[in-house]
From TrEMBL:
Topology in membrane: Multi-pass membrane protein
Main location per the UniProt record: membrane
Residue spans crossing the bilayer: 45-64, 76-98, 119-140, 152-169, 176-203, 223-241, 253-273, 302-324, 336-353, 365-384
Presence of the UniProt keyword Signal in the record: no
Keyword Amino-acid biosynthesis: no
Gene Ontology cellular component annotations, sorted alphabetically: membrane
A biological-process GO annotation: spore germination
PANTHER family the record matches: SPORE GERMINATION PROTEIN A2
Alphabetical UniProt keywords: Germination, Membrane, Transmembrane, Transmembrane helix, Transport
Family membership: Belongs to the amino acid-polyamine-organocation (APC) superfamily. Spore germination protein (SGP) (TC 2.A.3.9) family.
Name assigned to this protein: Spore germination protein GerB
Compartments in which it is found: Membrane
Domain of life from the UniProt record: Bacteria
Length: 402
């Protein structure tokens, strides 16, 4: 009888400990604003390849060649490769800070800067991602206006597309990732078609190699980084990855595949156009669609523009999802409510940007911010986090030795 009462007491004691541990865990999650993501919402590591690649390749690939050629001429392909190497370096830095914090960028910011300053910095990143979505949407609207429907109003296309993005993003992260996955599978066969333009190629355009100075090539790489924008999304979706330690190789491969694709496209354009032509052509790659001909099909560029909506859709959806999640995490709001406000603002923003010059002005500022964010601020966070963690470890050792 005595043994039985002792057993009951021990069981009651351990149940109390379990309840207290669960309560402490719940309070910790509430204080940090972060909840443990359920297994059913996580994605396999290899899908990071598709997220990064789908986010990077958008409307920028249709026009980035002329911007780089203005800086480096026929050495533009070198700048494209250099920009890709910088992207892989930045991704490696992101993995360092995210693995140490075992969370997303909000947790990193809160550990290093505190709740208020950290929250403010996270909101700046949310704004950055939402502006990325706005620029992509407005640029695609302009392409449709110039090439297909000249009288199409900005607000009309935005109003038609916004419900689609709300529907996709409200389905959750896995739905958005599924869209990115399908987008790549559907559009990948388009790129080999540009080999048909090699019939008119001038291969001697790119020789001799490296005719420009190192500084000019670096400046060209800086310009090229805007076309690589989107990999910053890793800072938000990192907690959704299963086996995070295995995901880095897929993320790096996704960025490397984008670099390979951009180099291929740049070389195709350099072989086809003269330097003067490419400087005067706004959408160099899109213009190449007019060269592609089939006996049973005319005006292939119309098909190219239509298919490119499938390329652009994951760009916008992923950026909206990431921006709305950051706002949700900072203010502890319902993400669907945040999403409604964001899509309305996105529609209004796309309607209010009147001309291409306005788009270029916004994109120019965005390019500068994106460059310093990815290649200066992220390495700075690695350095700062290393110092902070070192001091914390030192304080722990001193306390243990007392």
């Amino acid at each position: 009888m005595k043994t039985k009462s002792v057993f009951i007491s021990c069981s009651y004691f351990f149940s109390l400990l379990s309840e207290q541990a669960a309560l402490f865990k719940k309070r910790s999650e509430t204080m940090s604003g972060e909840k443990v993501i359920k297994e059913k919402y996580l994605i396999s590591p290899f899908l990071s390849f598709f997220i990064i690649h789908a986010m990077q390749v958008g409307v920028g690939v249709l026009s980035f060649q002329s911007e780089i050629v203005k800086e480096t001429g026929y050495d533009a392909w070198i700048s494209v490769i250099l920009a890709g190497v910088l992207v892989n370096f930045s991704i490696a830095c992101m993995y360092i800070i995210l693995k140490r914090a075992d969370g997303d960028i909000i947790k990193v910011h809160q550990e290093l800067f505190g709740k208020w300053i950290g929250g403010f910095l996270s909101l700046l990143i949310a704004t950055f991602l939402l502006f990325l979505a706005l620029i992509i949407l407005r640029t695609y609207i302009e392409i449709v206006q110039v090439w297909v429907f000249e009288d199409l109003q900005n607000w009309c296309f935005a109003l038609l597309s916004i419900p689609f993005f709300y529907y996709v993003v409200s389905g959750g992260f896995r739905t958005v990732v599924g869209l990115a996955f399908l987008s790549i599978l559907i559009t990948l066969p388009i790129y080999p078609l540009f080999l048909m333009t090699l019939e008119f190629a001038q291969y001697n355009n790119i020789v001799p190699v490296w005719k420009h100075s190192v500084l000019e090539v670096i400046e060209g790489a800086k310009v090229a980084t805007f076309s690589y924008s989107g990999f910053e999304l890793l800072l938000v979706y990192f907690p959704f990855l299963k086996h995070k330690e295995l995901s880095q190789k897929w993320t790096q491969l996704g960025a490397a595949f984008t670099t390979l694709l951009y180099t291929y496209i740049t070389l195709i354009c350099l072989f086809f156009y003269s330097e003067e032509q490419i400087n005067k052509t706004i959408w160099a790659l899109l213009t190449l669609f007019k060269v592609i001909e089939f006996p049973f099909l005319e005006r292939f560029e119309y098909i190219g523009i239509t298919v490119w909506m499938i390329v652009v859709a994951p760009n916008i959806a992923l950026a909206i999802w990431a921006g709305s999640r950051l706002v949700k995490r900072v203010f502890s709001l319902n993400q669907r409510h945040v999403l409604i406000v964001i899509v309305i603002l996105l529609c209004g923003g796309a309607a209010l940007i009147p001309t291409r010059s306005a788009i270029d002005a916004i994109a120019s500022v965005f390019n500068q911010i994106g460059f310093y964010f990815a290649f200066v601020y992220i390495p700075f966070l690695v350095l700062l986090q290393t110092i902070v963690y070192k001091f914390k470890k030192g304080d722990t050792n001193e306390t243990a030795g007392m």
